Amino acid sequence: MAEKEESKLYFANDKSLSQRLSDFLRKLLHAFFDIFYVQYKASNLQVRQYSKQRQKLYHTFIMLLYTLQLVSLVFPPTVPEWQSFKLFSDIVSIIRGDFLLVKLNLGLACYIIALTLTMIPFFSLIFLYIKSFKKLAFDIQNYKLTLTAGLAFIKNVSFIPFLCIFTAMQRYDIIGSVPQYENVSSISFPIPYVGMFSIGFVLVLVFLALVENTFQYQQFLTKSSSGIYSRAHSKIEALKLLLSTALVFSHFYLQDTQNAIHLLISFLIGFTLWALYSLYLPFYQIFTNFTHSSAYLVLMWVSLVELFSKVLQNSTMVFVLIVFVSPCLVIIQWDLLHKRKEFIAKEFNKRIIGLDNIYKCELLIRNYSEEYLKASKMVEKETEMVKLKNEIFKVFKYMKKRFLKSNIQAVWEFIFAFTLLKDEGLARVKLSGTASVFDIEGSYLYYKYCRFLDDFSEDYLEEVDFVKFRKIYDKAMKQDKKTSQLQFEFWKELSSEKPNVGNLEKIAYKLHDNLKKCKRTLKKVTLQYPNNQLSLKLYGTFLLEVYNDNMKGNELLSKAEHEKKQQEMRSMGNYEKFNYFDDNNGIIIISGERDNLGNITSINRPASEILRLSENFAISMNIANFIPPPINIARVHNKALARFLINSQTTTVGLPFISYFIDSMGYLIEVYLQVRCVALNDCPFFLAGVKKSNLPREIILYDGDTILFNTRGFSVLVGYSDTELCLKGCQLSSVVKDFPKFYKNKNLTDVYKYMIPQTVNFISLKFLDVKINNYTFKYLIASDNQDEISTWNTQQAQKFSDLSELKTFVTTKINDTLPIKKGILKVSPAKKNLSVKFNIEPEYFYINETDFRPGKSPVGKFKDAAAVKVPVKGKTTESIEDIDKDQLEDKDKNVEILDLKDLKSGVLRKKDEDNEEDNEDGAEDANIVKKSGASVASSAQSSNASFTSSLEAQSLLSGVTASMKSFKIAFFLTILIVNIAVIAMIIYLKLISTSYIDTIIIKDLSERRVLMANLTTFARSLELLNYGMENYNEDFLRNIMINDIYTYKNIVNTIESKISKWDSKTKNMYSNMKFPTWELIDDNTIQMFGENIMDIMKKFIIHATALHLTELKEINEKNEDLFFLYRNGFGESLKAVNDSIGVFTREQEKITDKILMIVLLLALSAIILMILCFVAVLIPTLISVESSNGTVWRLFYLLPLDLVQEMRTRCEERLEMTHGVEVDIREEIQLFKSLESRKDIKMKKKWPQILSRISLYYLISMGLFIFFYYFAYENFGSILRTKPKLINMSGLRTFSTNAAYYWLQELKYSKSSFSYLYETSKYRLSSSPEQEIFNALTLLQYSEDSLVYKSLSHTGKTQTHEDYLWKSQCFSPNCELLKKGLHSGVLSFIGEIKDLECQILFGLNPDLNNILNKKNELAYGEKMLFDMYEEYMTTTINYHINTVIWATSAYCFVVTLTFFILYIPIINSVKDEITKVWRLGRLIPIEHRNKIMNAFKQAKGKK
């Protein structure tokens, strides 16, 4: 039956997302397991033998230390007069370590020590985990101190002390006190929040202790030198660590507040763990159980005594009960454990149903195992060993029925079979196929022993090795089949008149990858099995028919034929056991996994011919489909298989040697059958070896009078028909006329004569009943061959070795004098006069009956699958015969292994990793085929090598490679330079913002003139107050004045510190230019001085400070300080200060424009560079790619039709002959007619996919530059230019408000003797007070309009700003001007100033107190808005800078990342696609390739 398969291609991932995620998580877990497996191997290689006495002393010391540490957590008892026993309490607590260091004022040192010793193993573990996950080699011995010793120290000695110091630090950081320590100040840490992080250190500590507890112990006699630490598993020990952690937390958080609850918790913890250790005895030595249980017995007793002391309140009694009763309890515990062990043994012997807990089952297994080990050392106790073995298997069977299946159970069965029974095959089966709830410890042990088996076995058992070979071989066959299908699709599409170019390219790329993968897979199989004719033949035909490598293909096929003949010669007369690697034998591999139980996973050609169906069709079918009834139902048969896997005590499946199959046509077939159960890694399999019997007889399987199945010739033999008929469902009495008479007198030993109807010929009949388990198979055998009939009641073959003298096989007589060989099967000398009978019981062979070394091939056996070492470069490969001879000479003698400790270090080595693929051409197969000098020379001249490595071919590919390389370099440099330019722009913008925030102190400069005006106004007000002209509050004036003086002084200091960073013009104005100042000297002399602005400001501070300290009565026209402020406050000095602000802002604006222009030029340079890269590099690269792609595809498009058809036919034949796939040719295509029409085929363009990726970079870059121009250059530059103007106008508004009031006040007293006009009559300003009022109001109106209506009105316009301008912003209950907002207040103030001016000019004397209050109110509101503007501008500048920095950083990161994940892959992909298509030229036959090479040579001079 041929398989019909569609010739459609599906390019999809085989695994789902959940499967890939599951595989990734499994990989993470196995990487963690690998660390401790390597450590386990290293520890097995370095076994140190210690005396039992020494082990017990060390263990006693550790547990005594642990006991006192536990007791210290419930000390001291809270009873009166316990101070007299304080020394005893301190001694117990000091044992804990952390208490001692804190008492010595070394708490901080203790914390650091604990942290260091905790984190070193943790980081070592993390480092090793990363290495393990990445499959990097590491030597575990280098981490012996940091990891192995560190984990052991944490778990055995320092777990509780470290836990205490971490918890104490955490409590101290939260609560601030730790009553458990007397010197609590010593644990204070200088770094804040360290205590909060201590909870993380606690988790790390517990994690490390659990890791040590789970992974670092020996299980079940696997390391007898450390047997004192061996235990069943770690669940009780893990519970101990978690409960100890809870006890420590209770000690620090409950002992001082809820002491009774703390004692109750410690009592329950002690009781729980004492009961567990005493009841289940988890350790294999009674002494170890005693030490562990005693620690918690003492804890339980001390906690109980302290609880009892709450009632008694007697310190002496508490001391006596603790000190003197505890040792008595420990002695009682020792006796209790011994009685407990005896009680368990008695109960187990009575009834197994009492095993209600898995621990009890483990105890029983351990007990039986110890007895088995003792009996194994005595020859006379062989019967007792068999009994004990059956009892142990009985317990295992009970465990599987009673409890959930787990990895731990599989591990127990494995250790029993491997360590005690020395049966590696059975051990593999027991360890495989376990389905369990996730258990980290069980999973690790399961993984560890699976790895251990592979690393231990120098040579697999032959059955296991064959399964391994078939898995690899079937994988290679699938890959070869897929490659052949792709090749067929390629040639089919290429032969079309109008080929689908896109689909053809996709097929070509897939075909190249599969060719490479297939060659690598086949090479791997051939390297691992260099003498297997199947692998050699498959690889040879692949090279010959697919790869077009005739030289190497013929060599491999020749070697395969030679190996086949050698195998036939070795098989002649060698019936010692069934040879699985003999391709003449039928082999069926049946899955033992739960989800695929009974399904055929692999079948070879002889077996498929017996079943009369193709190998591909048989895969995944259930073997029950080919088994005769009544067990041909898959559910029934699978149940029997599952029962065997669960309860088997051997790997041999007990079936009759002569058995029967039903082929795909429904005929009964008689075969010789042998079934073995094997396991590879964690997968169980059933390995069925079958041979067709070829005995001259015909058989019917019947039920009552109904025929169920018959052999092909039965109808002809009994004369029922002249042709072969399937008699299924026919009446047996109608086929065999005398059947009722024969059946009535049926005797299994009788042979009946039956005369064929209408003839005079007789045949012989014999009835046969075969029982398998509870099923009975009824057969009727017929034959007319006298030799066959004569053998029916004689001794029959029961295994393949018994067939050595049957005539149906060409045999060589075995020498009876040879000694009995030992191996997988026990072989006896050849038996004579053998014939075949049917009503026989099968002979069982147990692997454990042999004494071969586990993992070793039996001495003297040839093993076809032995691994061959790859020869060193430069050396020739040894012959197989030499290797075999050396291997046989190096075989060790059989040594009994009583324990895994007996393994030598050389045995426990890791298998070499799979060889990586070498170069595709030339000498890559030198390690597989032993070549002569001539063959080597011919291979060196292989056409494949010359085709792809010629100068013409290399010139084509090197042109593409050079173009791609130059493009990658140029494009990367472009990205790099553009990124540098962008970063430079950020730096310049950052410099501008830093300069504005740091050096451009426009707010201070603007506020300075306001303060000068304020100080002048306050000085004048104090003078008027002295004259009694105004009723001002002197204290109020002086307080405001001193605040302004301090503010002014800070501004002057700031200017002095920043002036060195300003431009030269502004610096010159402040330091060198002279401005007039007027001073009063000797009460009546006024003198003018020329001073710079800095000196003027400093003098202003000096005179203002002196005036503030002057008494009120001395503040008059004769006061020098008053005159300086009065004359200069609104004079030339103030004008110079105002001018300096304008100069400063203009010069800084010029500098800002220059820097922004540099930034803009950088951006333009980057854009020009990108354009140049596109024009000068990208476009030529695209042209080169398109040219090269067209050249390589013309190589195939210009092939003649007959050649393409020939290649297509060759692929069809390979699919049909090698893989049994009949290609569906119903869908015919229109073939091309001439090569001229092929020249018009347009290749698929490569430039769109390259340009689409590259355009992404240009789009991102253009987006950044556009964003940068509008956001950074325009908006940010506008803000930088606007800020000085905005701040200046805000300050000018406040200054104008103060100036208007000042000159209004001067106007009021202009005609008095103390007016400005009289006091500075000769040296006053030329303008009048009326003019100054007009100027001040004009400036106030101008600044207000600029801030509210004109160019500056939109800057800083937030909701808060709007509220200040238009809504009520009162700051006091007496608010008048700001009721309707600041803008309304300014307009009202201007109106009132004008009104008061008019009153004064008309001779009235208005009161100015009201306008003074309004002025102060308005000035305060303006000051608040002034600060708001400054804060807004600073925030906006920072926001713009941060946004640009983040956007630019994201751009640099994205374009750099996309270069590696988008641009490099697409460039490499295009280059690889062209190279792949070129390398597919090896598929073209050699003679046509030569024509192509000549064409290339002729075009060599062309570009």
TrEMBL record:
Segments spanning the bilayer are 57-75, 106-130, 142-169, 189-215, 260-283, 295-312, 318-337, 969-989, 1155-1183, 1254-1273, 1443-1466
Looking at the record, the residues that make up the TmcB/TmcC TPR repeats domain are 462-568
Pfam families in the record: TPR_TmcB (PF25474)
What this protein is called in its record is TmcB/TmcC TPR repeats domain-containing protein
- Does the UniProt entry include the keyword Membrane? yes
Entry-linked InterPro entries: Tiny_macrocysts_regulators, TPR_TmcB/C
Give the lineage.
Eukaryota, Sar, Alveolata, Ciliophora, Postciliodesmatophora
Q: Which residues form a coiled coil?
A: none
Going by the UniProt record, its keywords in alphabetical order are: Membrane, Transmembrane, Transmembrane helix
**Signal sequence residues:** none
